[in-house]
């Protein structure tokens, strides 16, 4: 449930991180390593930048209008 809104997480090593219910609205996760991360209920918006090829919906993240 961490608030990581607007965080700069470029290249962050988040493999196996528990990001369930976190707020990633506006966060930049470009080139971040998200393998095996828990994303159930994680919030994101149109401004969130994901690593190339990452599918937040199949990972369990939820898009918000925020």
Describe the 3D structure.
It is a single chain. With 66 residues, the protein is low in regular secondary structure. The chain contains no helices and two strands. It has strands at residues 43-44, 62-63. Strands 1-2 form a two-stranded parallel ribbon. The two termini are 16 Å apart.
Task: Give a brief outline of the structure.
With 66 residues, the chain is mostly loops. Helices cover 0% and strands 6% of the residues.
What are the key terms here?
two-stranded parallel ribbon, about 5% strand, about 70 residues, little secondary structure
Strand content: 5-15%
Q: What's the pLDDT, averaged over the residues? A: 96
Q: Biggest sheet: strands, sense, closure?
A: 2 strands, parallel
Number of helices: 0
Write the layout of secondary structure elements.
Layout (H helix, E strand, L loop, with lengths): L42 E2 L17 E2 L3
Parallel strand pairs: 1-2
